[in-house]
Prior knowledge:
The protein is mostly helical. The protein has two domains: about 10-110, Orthogonal Bundle (Rna Polymerase Sigma Factor, Chain: A), CATH 1.10.1740.10; about 120-190, Arc Repressor Mutant, subunit A (Orthogonal Bundle), CATH 1.10.10.10. The chain is about 70% helix and about 0% strand. It has nine helices and no strands. It is elongated, with a radius of gyration of 23 Å. The model is unreliable at about 95-115 (pLDDT under 50).
Amino acid sequence: MATTQTPDALLVKNYMAGDENALAILIKRHQSKIYGFIYSKIADREIADDVFQDTFVKVIKTLKSQSYNEEGKFLPWVMRIAHNLIVDHFRKGKKMPMLRETEEFSIFTILTDNSPTIEGQLITEQIEGDLIKIIEELPDDQKEVLMMRIYQDLSFKEISDLTGVSINTALGRMRYAILNMRKVIEKNQIILTN
């Protein structure tokens, strides 16, 4: 039975022999170091999550194909995979397509942690601040519908009754508000992900 004290090389061997839990231990053991490395290079939470996930998809594929031969050097090997994926990301100059995880294994089922971090809260506050600035730029009729729909959680029927316009007009204003916000976001290259 693998434990948190089992050496990396043995856990790798166990995983290759069919012990799925061995990989979970390896990921938990090294996740902060690997994720920290990725995030330090990319500094975008969503892209860093994608790269982290892709790193382990590649690790799994390599181990399952029995072509791993870095005996005892698991962490440096994983770091090299992560580094190569980061380089690929910057080479493409855009968000990398994510290799979808298989149904048998999802990295984030092992790493679920729903507690908000201070950093996460600060990023959320920053995003909300940016959004409010963008909303302020909208024409009044669009801003009104958007605020009612998102911040007051009103239905389009309620918005229609309150503003004295048809439901279609309210829907149209919401649509234009979103299109205008998208234009501002793209023009200023604002990243609204955390």
